[in-house]
Amino acid sequence: MNDIFLSIVIPAFNEAKRLPETLRDIKKKMESADFSYEVIVVDDGSSDGTGKMAEELGKAFPNFQLISNKINRGKGAVVRQGMLAAEGGWRLFMDADNSTTIDHFQKMREFFDAGYNVVIGSRDIPGAKMDPPQSFLKRLAGDVGNFLMRLLGLTSFRDTQCGFKCFSGQAAVKIFSLAAIDRWAFDLEILSLAQRLGFKIKEIPVNWVNNFDSRVKIGHYFLTLFDIWKIRWRFWREKL
To answer: CA-CA distance, 59 to 71, in Å (whole number)?
Structure first.
């Protein structure tokens, strides 16, 4: 019988500078957890020693797995890889820069008990905090993307891009087995799939630290807009 309650999946590309502090923070905050957990780092073809560093720090965890890719596949691809390799009854993915910290998982648990299959962090609903706020251009691009998703009937959420999302094991397997977007629009795809598969989804406010060394640049938002049309076309074609 699977005894892992929570899987924590962290996609990482050239994160040798930021990932160590994230892993140490997870270790510290999970020491008092009343459940079993595992940490899975998926190294997306890094060239800065991210994988070696993660493997060394992983020795401090009760359950740790490093998945290393020789080439860069994209955040969507490696999140999918990690979520399908996970064994937890609940499977969470979070950012390598720790922009939303692992203690937010405790805020999610009450909604699992209430019957939700998917709980996602949001920076755009009452109670959320951003420190410091994103730039005007990033906020505008994100708002345009979310509006387009609602217009096309793909999702109804305020913030689809926050990198802190948790799924039941059953939901994770079904959703990520169908997902196909490898890069930045993968969040939009998995939420759209979750809705179409009938899973119960809750959006909760989080505290999010805006890292100015973020891997997400303004150009990625416009690539995401293009992928939205690809998602919509695929759903029409496959009648999802």
So the answer is: 25
Block residue for tokens 């820069």: 97
- 8/106 Cα distance (integer angstroms): 13
Q: How many domains does the chain have?
A: 1
> How far is 189 from 175, CA to CA, in rounded Å?
9
Task: Determine the structural domain holding residue 61 and report its residue range.
Answer: 6-134+159-184+199-214
Whether the model pTM is above 0.85? yes
76, 179 contact by CB (below 8 A): yes
Q: Which amino acid is at 219?
A: G
Residues 6+ apart with CB under 8 A from 147: none
The Cα–Cα gap between 145 and 198 comes to 23
Scanning the chain, the segments in alpha helix (DSSP H) are 19-30, 50-57, 75-85, 105-113, 136-151, 169-178, 186-196, 218-238
Asked whether residue 150 is assigned to any structural domain, the reply reads no
Residue 1's pLDDT is 38
CA 212 to chain centre: 19
38 touches 54 (CB < 8 A): no
Query: Looking at the predicted structure, is the pLDDT value of residue 216 above 60?
Result: no
pLDDT-wise least confident of 97-106, 150-159, 224-233: 150-159
Distances (CA, A) of 120 to 38, 236, 238: 19, 25, 26
Whether 239 is covered by a domain: the verdict is no
pLDDT at 47 over 90: yes
β-sheet bridge partners, residue 169: none
